[in-house]
């Protein structure tokens, strides 16, 4: 594993997939690991947060924490941990979010949690991870379907140095584009599209998009601060907001997701790390201020070259929308033998 691969390995935040060999056995974890009593969570899942200002969620989005069983940890990130678990009669992924310590942190993280819950509940698509429900107490929890496959990034790493068959790569790209088209039709910008946030289904024939932690409503982009996605897949206009001093804001559109899609598509077609030889920050800087893009193989069909170059265009207004991308990919897929 080279430096870039190791770097990206450390960024695998919230896998909602069960990747152990024994998927039928649910094991309890220590209370210290979970941060609450192992097994059934207890509480009613519907009361106001303790030690923080109460925030509201539609009661229809909440589930009874007494019916939620927490198993072993699948992954963790800066703002929480993900566990496998059970809710009623189904296997679920349980994302437990931190609440913060200061009043400012608590308010920010609770707002982020509420926003993620509302957005996940608004959209339903076969290529989006299914939202099950949420709890406010004893901790902030989001429960989703538990996918038995691995992340797209790990799948691609396991395949190296081989390439995906072209029809498989385009099929995965179509899954991603359709999921993004659904989000954008609901005026939701994901802002963190990357292989780590794409999970394969059990048959490894399709992928689903996960993790709405950085998603925003498109109508609120003028109010967004510099909280953004992972640098290597970040649109140039997003990186420019990161370089602004704290508190400054800049407007951007759903086309930031189109740029990220182009980098993921390039990975599907080449099975290489984008911006090889660069750190994450170097990659983002090169893309934003030097207009550097991943090199396109000479063997790539012209239609795909055109799609890549259109999607990662410097001017967001030139980039196609996902409805157009789905149409182009379907047309290309039809031409394959």
From TrEMBL:
<feature type="domain" description="Protein kinase">
    <location>
        <begin position="68"/>
        <end position="333"/>
    </location>
</feature>
<keyword id="KW-0418">Kinase</keyword>
<keyword id="KW-0547">Nucleotide-binding</keyword>
<dbReference type="InterPro" id="IPR017441">
    <property type="entry name" value="Protein_kinase_ATP_BS"/>
</dbReference>
<feature type="compositionally biased region" description="Acidic residues">
    <location>
        <begin position="1"/>
        <end position="12"/>
    </location>
</feature>
<dbReference type="InterPro" id="IPR000719">
    <property type="entry name" value="Prot_kinase_dom"/>
</dbReference>
<feature type="compositionally biased region" description="Polar residues">
    <location>
        <begin position="17"/>
        <end position="27"/>
    </location>
</feature>
<keyword id="KW-0723">Serine/threonine-protein kinase</keyword>
<feature type="region of interest" description="Disordered">
    <location>
        <begin position="1"/>
        <end position="31"/>
    </location>
</feature>
<dbReference type="InterPro" id="IPR001245">
    <property type="entry name" value="Ser-Thr/Tyr_kinase_cat_dom"/>
</dbReference>
<dbReference type="GO" id="GO:0005524">
    <property type="term" value="F:ATP binding"/>
</dbReference>
<dbReference type="Pfam" id="PF07714">
    <property type="entry name" value="PK_Tyr_Ser-Thr"/>
</dbReference>
<comment type="similarity">
    <text>Belongs to the protein kinase superfamily.</text>
</comment>
<keyword id="KW-0808">Transferase</keyword>
<feature type="binding site">
    <location>
        <position position="95"/>
    </location>
    <ligand>
        <name>ATP</name>
    </ligand>
</feature>
<keyword id="KW-0067">ATP-binding</keyword>
<protein>
    <recommendedName>
        <fullName>Protein kinase domain-containing protein</fullName>
    </recommendedName>
</protein>
<dbReference type="InterPro" id="IPR008271">
    <property type="entry name" value="Ser/Thr_kinase_AS"/>
</dbReference>
<dbReference type="InterPro" id="IPR011009">
    <property type="entry name" value="Kinase-like_dom_sf"/>
</dbReference>
<dbReference type="GO" id="GO:0004674">
    <property type="term" value="F:protein serine/threonine kinase activity"/>
</dbReference>
<dbReference type="InterPro" id="IPR051681">
    <property type="entry name" value="Ser/Thr_Kinases-Pseudokinases"/>
</dbReference>
């Amino acid at each position: 594993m080279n430096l870039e691969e190791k770097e990206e390995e450390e960024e695998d935040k919230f896998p909602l997939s069960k990747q152990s060999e024994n998927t039928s056995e649910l094991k309890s974890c220590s209370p210290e690991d979970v941060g609450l009593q192992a097994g059934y969570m207890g509480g009613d899942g519907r009361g106001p947060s303790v030690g923080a200002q109460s925030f509201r969620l539609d009661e229809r989005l909440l589930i009874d924490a007494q019916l939620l069983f927490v198993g072993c940890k699948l992954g963790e990130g800066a703002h929480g941990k993900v566990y496998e678990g059970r809710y009623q009669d189904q296997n679920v992924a349980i994302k437990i979010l931190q609440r913060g310590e200061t009043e400012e942190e608590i308010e920010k993280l609770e707002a982020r949690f509420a926003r993620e819950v509302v957005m996940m509940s608004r959209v339903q698509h076969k290529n989006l991870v299914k939202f099950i429900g949420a709890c406010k107490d004893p901790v902030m929890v989001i429960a989703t379907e538990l996918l038995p496959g691995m992340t797209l990034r790990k799948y691609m790493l396991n395949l190296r140095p081989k390439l995906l068959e072209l029809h498989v790569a385009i099929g995965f790209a179509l899954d991603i584009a359709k999921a993004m088209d659904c989000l954008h039709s609901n005026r939701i910008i994901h802002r963190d599209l990357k292989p780590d946030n794409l999970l394969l289904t059990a048959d490894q024939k399709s992928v689903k998009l996960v993790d709405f932690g950085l998603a925003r409503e498109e109508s609120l982009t003028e109010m967004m601060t510099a909280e953004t996605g992972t640098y290597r897949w970040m649109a140039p206009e997003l990186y420019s907001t990161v370089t602004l001093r704290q508190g400054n804001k800049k407007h951007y559109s759903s086309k930031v997701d189109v740029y990220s899609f182009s980098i993921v598509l390039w990975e599907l077609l080449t099975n290489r790390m984008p911006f090889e030889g660069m750190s994450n920050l170097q990659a983002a800087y090169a893309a934003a201020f030097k207009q550097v893009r991943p090199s396109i193989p000479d063997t790539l069909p012209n239609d795909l070259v055109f799609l890549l170059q259109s999607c990662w265009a410097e001017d967001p207004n030139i980039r196609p929308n996902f409805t157009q991308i789905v149409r182009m990919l379907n047309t290309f897929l039809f031409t394959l033998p």
